[in-house]
Write a structure and sequence with these properties.
By secondary structure, the chain is an alpha/beta fold. Among the domains are: about 40 residues; about 200 residues, Rossmann fold (3-Layer(aba) Sandwich); about 230 residues, P-loop containing nucleotide triphosphate hydrolases (Rossmann fold, 3-Layer(aba) Sandwich), CATH 3.40.50; about 50 residues, no CATH class. The protein has 31 helices and 19 strands. An 8-stranded mixed sheet has the order 10-11-9-12-13-8-14-15, sandwiched between helices. The protein has a 7-stranded parallel sheet with strand order 3-4-2-5-6-1-7, sandwiched between helices. Helix 16 packs antiparallel against helix 22. The chain is elongated, with a radius of gyration of 46 Å. InterPro entries: DEAD/DEAH_box_helicase_dom, Helicase_ATP-bd, Helicase_C-like, P-loop_NTPase, RNA-helicase_DEAD-box_CS, RNA_helicase_DEAD_Q_motif, SPB4-like_CTE. It comes from Phialocephala subalpina.
Length: about 800
């Protein structure tokens, strides 16, 4: 009993010790939170803070930043983080690659930590991103710096299982999401509540404010509580009052880093533009890639269909560098795989839409190429921001059509973007137009992609708001269609629809007068459009019938251009400006349009015969067809080369005299003929000997067969043990054909007879055959056989 009492006293004392430890820990946490809160309240906003250790941060956040190798603050971080820690609403604007992500992630973690946020409190912070790739990148940074916190964080983007997200959504403290999927959960997931939300963050806020996301963001904000902290960050920020009112910002602090700077883009970024006509853009792009095979390149285009066509066509031409493509139509798993591949490679080229333009951090990008003009200067700034990040060097090139140059350069100057003109070296310029035509000719699917790419590009130009830059009537669309391998420009629906609206709204009299005047103009001024056989060939479904012939036709033009592909790595030159030689382009176009050379056969008729198609060549193999083309009363012979000659041709006296005198030529002719006759005699003798030998061998084989008792025409007979032939009985039986011959012909029916009488007669004749197993011996056997016959 005593020992048990002692043990009981020990257990009570140990329980009190654990409670004391817990209470001490709780008290220490409370003291730490109070100290942290006082430090944040006393933080001097005007003071200059350079390192994260100078900020009043919690121990888990400090450890996470140190483990992720974040030590010094960037300009935007030093200004935005102290304000955000104090709970202010922020509008942040800074250059691309300046560290805006940490400017809102650090305050999110700290504010929730100081509020002692737990899993039971629900959602505390909502971070909205315009693209899935950017949301994934933000979530990865959050995982790194928040690894020592106890908060639960989730990623909510499209392309993943909705049911799995629903099950976990109610337990999350921090959510990184895209607008569409977030609104879907707010409307459909019953367990998802946002009543306790403390912070709302919009990364790339100007893009989220665009028309594509405006309705979704408005609907999300309606669900959220009014009392919250809101932060907006972007490389190009707006101060629109309507935007601020819609998001319910309370006295926001506008934090702008680049406004006082001399330029809006990083100083380590070299920026150029090339005046390239629309039909020459693909040639220039391919030449540039061939000249920079050891670089990491991003090529921006205006539509996903363009991205797919250029990727597929360049992949067939194999420029010598790994190629990737990324656009919004791809599945989420494929997009993640492509972004990870491009991040991991040292030299590759990715064709992408503006899905990649915002916020994404690809390491060590050397070049950013904008094949299509961006819609505005802000989009340009975001695109070139994929290179020269975190004070590294980078280069960017913008391809501009002559109609876009003046307006776009002015817009960039107003945004403080330093850009200078350059030109492609004529020595390095290559033309891939004939190769694209050949590929579209062979592959109907690639031709279909080209048509879709053309239409999508034309529509993207047509819908642009800035008509000073984008005027679709100034673009050479016919030349662009030819440059991507199409036989002609596809019809575009929006142009036809606009014409139909004008016709519907116009009065009938005006329409009739306009139609008449147009017809008269066409008759007087326009010539009828001539469509060549190659145009019709492109429209056929079985386009690969002549693909081999077509590739031979255009192969010569490409070999010379690709021979000098790797002479010099410098594709763009700022110092030396060489004009583009237009004669080479016209020659290439002529090769592609003229078709194969015609075959001329002289000597058949008065005029030489021209064979310009395989069908005509096949028809002229007939002697009858050739006879119709010959002059009457003449006869032609063909030499070994297939050239036709008259059977008797007169020779000039001078040509005859050149070969010697008549006696010399006669002696030479007789000698050649005698030698030819001797050779023919030897061949005839050899052939006669061969035939005689074969005849002798056949006779000997026949005699040997007869000696063995076998006839030449009769095979060996089968005999049984008694010496009788078992097939003798079968040979004696009449054949089926003999029975048909012996059977009398059917009597023709009278007019009063019908088929029923024939059936009765035939049924009588066709009786059943009953086989008796044994011959009937008794009267009972006979009666049984008779009964069977009667039945």
């Amino acid at each position: 009993m005593a020992s048990s009492a002692v043990g009981g006293r020990k257990s009570k004392s140990s329980g009190r010790g654990k409670n004391d430890v817990r209470s001490l820990k709780r008290k220490r946490d409370v003291d730490e939170h109070e100290t942290l809160q006082k430090a944040v309240e006393g933080l001097d906003l005007k003071g200059e803070i350079k390192d994260f250790k100078d900020l009043p941060l919690s121990q888990p956040t400090s450890r996470g930043l140190e483990a992720s190798h974040f030590k010094t603050l960037t300009d935007i971080q030093s200004k935005a983080v102290p304000l955000a820690l104090k709970g202010r609403d922020i509008l942040g604007a800074a250059k691309t690659g300046s560290g805006k992500t940490l400017s809102f992630l650090v305050p999110v973690l700290e504010n929730l930590y100081r509020a002692t946020w737990t899993e039971l409190d629900g959602l505390g912070a909502l971070i909205i991103s315009p693209t899935r790739e950017l949301a994934i990148q933000i979530f990865e940074v959050l995982r790194k710096i928040g690894r020592y916190h106890t908060f639960s964080a989730g990623l909510v983007i499209g392309g993943k299982s909705l049911q799995e997200e629903r099950e976990r959504l109610g337990r999350m403290n921090i959510l990184v999401c895209t607008p569409g999927r977030m609104l879907q959960h707010m409307d459909q997931t019953a367990a998802f509540e946002v009543d306790n939300l403390q912070m709302l963050v919009l990364d790339e806020a100007d893009r989220i404010m665009d028309m594509g996301f405006q309705t979704s963001v408005d609907a999300i904000v309606e669900h959220l509580p009014k009392q919250r902290q809101t932060m907006l960050f972007s490389a190009t920020q707006t101060k629109k009052v309507s935007d601020l009112a819609r998001l319910s910002l309370r006295d926001p602090e506008y934090v702008a880093v680049h406004e006082a700077a001399a330029q809006a883009t990083p100083t380590t970024l070299q920026q150029y533009y090339v005046v390239t006509p629309l039909p020459e853009k693909l040639n220039t792009l391919f030449s540039f890639i061939r000249s920079n095979l050891k670089a990491k390149i991003i090529v921006f285009m205006s539509s996903g269909k363009q991205v797919r066509f250029v990727y597929e066509s360049f992949r067939h031409m194999q420029p010598g560098i790994p190629l990737l493509h990324l656009h919004g139509r791809q599945k989420q798993t494929a997009r993640l795989d492509i972004t990870s591949k491009f991040s991991a490679t040292k030299n590759s080229c990715i064709f992408a839409t503006d899905v990649v333009a915002r916020g994404l951090d690809f390491p060590a990008v050397d070049w950013v190429i904008q094949m299509d003009c961006p819609e505005d200067a802000d989009t340009y700034i975001h695109r070139v921001g994929r290179t020269a990040r975190y004070e590294r060097a980078g280069k960017a090139v913008l391809f501009l059509d002559p109609s876009e140059v003046e307006g776009m350069v002015k817009r960039l100057e107003l945004k403080k973007v330093p850009i200078q003109q350059t030109k492609a070296r004529d020595k390095k310029q290559q033309s891939i137009q004939s190769q694209l035509q050949n590929m579209c000719f062979q592959d109907p699917e690639l031709k279909y992609l080209g048509q879709k790419a053309f239409v999508s590009y034309a529509k993207s130009v047509f819908v642009q708001k800035d008509k000073d830059i984008f005027n679709i009537s100034k673009y050479d669309l016919e030349g662009y269609a030819s440059s991507i391998g199409l036989p002609g420009a596809p019809k575009i629906k929006f142009q036809r629809g606009e014409d139909m609206k004008k016709i519907k709204n116009a009065p009938r009299a005006a329409i009739s007068s306009d139609e008449e005047s147009d017809e008269e103009k066409d008759k007087n001024s326009k010539k009828p459009e001539v469509r060549t056989k190659y145009d019709r060939m492109f429209e056929r479904r079985n386009q690969d019938v002549l693909s081999g012939h077509y590739s031979k036709m255009i192969a010569g033009a490409d070999d010379e251009q690709l021979a000098d592909a790797d002479e010099d790595n410098d594709f763009l030159s700022v110092k030396r400006v060489v004009p583009i030689n237009s004669e080479e382009d016209s020659d290439d176009d002529g090769v592609a349009a003229s078709g194969p050379a015609a075959k001329v056969i002289p000597g058949i008729g008065k005029e030489p015969l021209v064979i310009d198609s395989k069908r005509r060549e096949k028809l002229l193999k007939s002697k009858k067809k050739l006879a119709n083309l010959k002059e009457k009363g003449t006869k032609v012979v063909f030499d070994e080369d297939g050239v036709a000659h008259q059977i008797y041709e007169l020779e000039d006296e001078d040509d005859f005299a050149k070969r010697g005198s008549a006696e010399t030529q006669r002696a030479k002719f007789l000698e050649e003929e005698a030698a030819r006759v001797r050779e023919a005699d030897l061949d005839d003798k050899q052939l006669a000997k061969q035939k005689k030998r074969e005849k002798k061998e056949k006779r000997k084989a026949r005699e040997e067969a007869q000696a063995a008792g076998l006839s030449e025409h009769e095979g060996p007979t089968l005999a049984d043990e008694d010496g009788q032939d078992p097939l003798e009985l079968l040979r004696s039986l009449p054949m089926a054909d003999d029975e048909e011959k012996e059977r009398p012909a059917k009597r023709p029916k009278k007019w009063f007879e019908d088929d029923s009488e024939d059936e009765k007669k035939t049924s009588k004749r066709k009786g059943r055959v009953i086989e008796a197993e044994d011959e009937p011996e008794t009267l009972e056997d006979l009666e049984a056989l008779a009964a069977g016959l009667l039945n």
